[in-house]
Structure formats: C-alpha cells, structure tokens
Write a structure and sequence with these properties.
The chain is of the alpha+beta class. It is 16% helix and 21% strand. The chain contains eight helices and 21 strands. 32% of the residues are buried.
Length: 466
C-alpha cells in the first residue's frame, strides 16, 4: 500500500493526515489508537472534500475571523483556607513524630495518645514545650559547648567501661553543702568557664518553667519541685545510647521527679517496668526500633481484652516506647525510679532516626533534677565514700558509691585506677518513711495534665522568635 493510498483522518478535528506513520494528528496532536482514529483509503474518499488548515482551526479551536482563543476554565480551589504560609510554617512535633507504643510481655504492640500515657506508666509527655525560637537557640548554645562534654567511666556488669555518649553537668544555683561532691554537676554553670553566660541564664529560665508546670500537675507535693542541677547527654549518632537503668538517688532522695528535655534528632525514650521482687533488667526486644523487629502497631484494646492491661498483673513486664522529637519534654514521676527502668536504645541505622534540620543525627538530652543532698544523712561504705541510694527489690538501700563516678576526679592525669566497688549494702529506713510521705501527698490519679507555662520574661521573650 502506497503512502497516498493509506492515510488517516483524525476523529477529533477531521484533519486528513497523509503520513500513515504518524501516531498523533499533525494539527491537534490527538492520539491515533484503536477506534479513536481510523485508516482510510483515499480512493474510497476521493469525493469527500478535504478541509483546509484554516477551516480546521476555525471550527476546532475557535481561531480566526476575529475571535480570540477560548480560555480553559481553571479548576476550583478544593481547599480555599490553606495558603502558602500554612505549607511553609514549622510543623508541630505531633504532626510528624510517631505515637506512643507499648506492649505487655510478649503481647502485640499497641498505640495510645499522649494524654493516656499515665494509664500505662508513671510519666507524662509534653510536646513543643518551649517556643520554637528558644528551643533552637538552646540547641545552638549546647552544640557550641560540645568540646567540654566528656565520656565517663561506669561500673556495670562486673567491669569498668566508658559511657557510649558524652555528658556534662550544670549546677543551676549554689547548692547547700552536703559534705560530698555532686556526681551530676561538680561546678555551677555560672562558674564553669566553658559554659556561656547566655546558656546558663537560659537553663535557669527553663528550670523555672518546668517547676511551674510540675507544680500545676502536682500541687500538693512538698517540698515543691525546684530543679537545681541539670545532667546533659549528647548522642552524636544513631549508635550512641544509654542502657536500661534507674538513677542513683543519693542526692535526689526517694521518689524524685525528673524532667527530661530533648533537643535535636528524634529518638525513642523507652520505659520498662520491673517484675515484682526482681532487680534485674528483664530481657526483651527494646534495644532497637521499628527496623529491629518491633511489629506494626495496633490500636490499643480495652483493659482485659486481647492482651490489654489487667488489674493485678503485677509480674507482667510493660515496655513503653515514647518518641522524643525536638523540643519535647517527658516527666518521670516518683514511682518511675522505683518500679521502672528507662533507656535511650541504639538504632539499627541512620534511616531509623528522624534528623534535625541543622544538626542531623545529633541529639541533646537535658534532665532537670532537684538536689536534696543537704537533707540526706548518707552513711559511708567500706571504701570510705558516701554511699549511694538505690531502690532494690522492695526497699531503698544504701550501696557502694563505686558504682557511680564521683564528679571529675577520675579525669585528672594523676588519678589512680578506679577500684572495684565494695559489697556495702544497708537498708534505709529514712528513705522508706520519706517515700511513704511523698506518696501520700500525691494524687492517686496521675491523669492531671501539665499546662504549658511559657514565660514571657526578658530573656525568653528575646529568644522566642520563629
């Protein structure tokens, strides 16, 4: 078949295309497929008038004879209330960070909203605690100070090792003398030459806001929570972590309130309950993340149904994963150091970490604590050092201080090798009575949700830019 005997007519604009190899119309670019375009023989259509290009444009596109091209109607705006400013404004952490997940023993992984965390564990999560500008400024000041953050030795599982992260302590105000150096903050932040004056003032303002928030949630507690020391942990990448543990209470006293503020990359904060009468860390798959074998979360069933929490299940181990994005705070209430252990586990890969826009994988954790060292009559262990207070089994006990580093004494070049801790172990009657008193003045229902208490003083107002 010759080229002239095989042409095709576009069914859209009726233009006769003389080149049979074209798959689109030369005029309107209509696709020539199947029934939409037909191949005809010019001999059969010899009597059919062939339309000129001008006629095709006039009839199909309304062009010519003084007429302007027809305007195509714009689609209607399906979301008239959303603007470009809504797209560009910073998102709240609740919009991108995952939900709280928990499981009971080997049961399924369940999800709960933030305001129901108190039903599972003695903790409270507060997202976007500080103004966005203040949180970013605090993160910048901490990162400038990173050279003064050090790794410290730690005695665990029968041997000395170094912490898999760098730490630094800040003393917010002068502490009453207790006869022993502080293990958290050897020097006041204002006296530390490596700490900028702006950072010291900012930590003081944050401590005031945290104290007001805690007092609103637990108004009956005495003495009122007033942070005096801050312990900072810096996690440089996804491998740095802190293992499951409960804190030493030699300076804090029984049933302390500890508030952790997360700045930088988002990491999981894991709480694991202790079985009754057991002091060891339960074995479980809490060392990873979603890529480390934790199945997809499900909706939480009601209590007693399909793995839901049951009353009286005291020996069941609960594992709670709390995502801690930038500028989020978690409050660990008094029972947390008695019946629970907390950790920031390592992640399987960098992809498992939600990066911060400027610092990437780096995460800073600031834990605000109130020292009660002046109130505690700490005995001395066989090593001749003040003993540490720990909740073990069902009671508070004084143990050897060798389990914890004492200030910065081990960092000196002429420091002797660290001795292994002795076997000193003694029950603390005062800690038991004080714990009972504190428990009695706390609400039985810990559902009181802290209110945001953003200060508008000179320092904070000057930094709260978005």
């Amino acid at each position: 078949m010759s080229r002239e005997s095989s042409a095709w007519t576009c069914t859209r604009c009726t233009y006769h295309n003389t080149n049979a190899t074209y798959l689109r119309c030369e005029i309107c670019a209509h696709v020539r497929i199947g029934s939409t375009c037909s191949t005809i023989d010019l001999k059969r259509n010899a009597k059919r008038p062939i339309r000129s290009l001008q006629q095709t444009l006039e009839t199909s596109f309304n062009i010519g004879k003084g007429k302007s091209p027809a305007k195509r109607a714009r689609p209607a705006n399906t979301n008239p209330g959303r603007s470009i400013l809504d797209v560009l404004k910073p998102k709240r952490s609740s919009e991108f960070a995952g939900a709280i997940r928990w499981k009971l023993d080997k049961g399924p992984v369940l999800t709960i909203p933030d305001d129901e965390l108190h039903n599972i564990a003695p903790a409270t999560l507060v997202r976007d605690f500080l103004p966005a500008g203040t949180a970013e400024r605090c993160l910048q000041l901490l990162d400038r100070d990173q050279a003064s953050w050090k790794k410290h030795p730690w005695y665990i599982y029968g041997r000395w090792t170094t912490t898999p992260r760098t730490t630094k302590g800040f003393r917010i105000e002068s502490l009453p003398t207790s006869g022993s150096p502080s293990m958290y903050a050897p020097a006041a932040a204002s006296d530390d030459e490596s700490t900028s004056k702006e950072l010291a003032e900012l930590l003081q303002n944050i401590a005031l806001q945290l104290a007001e928030m805690v007092d609103t949630a637990r108004p009956g507690r005495h003495p009122k929570f007033k942070p005096t020391i801050v312990l900072g942990n810096r996690y440089a990448d996804h491998t740095q972590n802190v293992g499951a543990h409960s804190d030493f209470l030699g300076e804090l006293g029984p049933r302390p309130i500890i508030v952790g503020l997360a700045l930088g990359a988002c990491r999981d904060f894991v709480l694991t309950s202790k079985p009754s009468g057991d002091t060891t860390m339960p074995s479980g798959d809490i060392s990873g993340d979603a890529e480390c074998g934790i199945p997809k979360a499900q909706e939480a069933p009601k209590a007693g149904e399909n793995g839901g929490a049951k009353e009286g299940a005291g020996n069941c181990i609960k594992t709670v994963r709390i995502p801690m994005p930038h500028n989020s705070a978690v409050i660990m209430w008094g029972e947390c150091q008695e019946r629970w252990e907390h950790a920031v586990p390592a992640c399987s890969s960098e992809k498992a970490v939600q990066r911060h826009p400027t610092l990437g994988l780096v995460r800073y954790s600031l834990t605000f604590r109130m020292s009660r060292a002046a109130e505690l009559a700490r005995p001395k262990c066989s090593c001749g050092k003040p003993a540490e207070l720990k909740f073990r089994g069902r009671c508070y006990r004084w143990i050897c201080a060798g389990y914890a580093p004492r200030g910065d004494e081990h960092l000196h070049e002429d420091a002797p090798p660290l001795p292994d801790p002795c076997s000193f172990d003694m029950r603390s009657e005062w800690a038991h009575k004080e714990a009972a008193r504190l428990e009695a003045c706390e609400p039985q229902d810990s559902s009181a949700k802290p209110t945001m208490c953003i200060h508008t003083d000179r320092h904070t107002a000057g930094l709260s830019h978005n």
